[in-house]
Amino acid sequence: KEQTQNILLFNSIEIGRRLTEAKNMMEYGQFGKWLAEKVGFKSRPHFSSVFKSVTGMTCTEFIRQAQKER
To answer: Which of 18, 21, 27, 34 is a good FRET partner for 42, with 20 to 30 A between their CA atoms?
Structure first.
């Protein structure tokens, strides 16, 4: 049970790290089809799904918001 909790915690931390990296890149205009792979996701659809479930917005919405805040 403890090992499973450690794995889940690691996965959660790793996903958070990857999404933070992706958000930083998107804020500075670095985005495209390659982004998901660059930050460690195996597929763009999976990245998009995880991104939306964690941030509450699509990548496009996030980029638009970031551009408005500049």
So the answer is: 27
Q: DSSP letter string over 10-34? A: HHHHHHHHHHHHHHHHHHTT--STT
Q: Which helix (H) or strand (E) holds 70?
A: none
Residue 39 in contact with residue 47, Cβ under 8 Å?
A: yes
Could you say which DSSP state residue 47 is in? H
Q: How confident is the model at residue 69 (pLDDT cuts 50, 70, 90)?
A: confident
pLDDT at 22 over 80: yes
Phi, psi of 41, rounded to the nearest 5 degrees: -95, 145
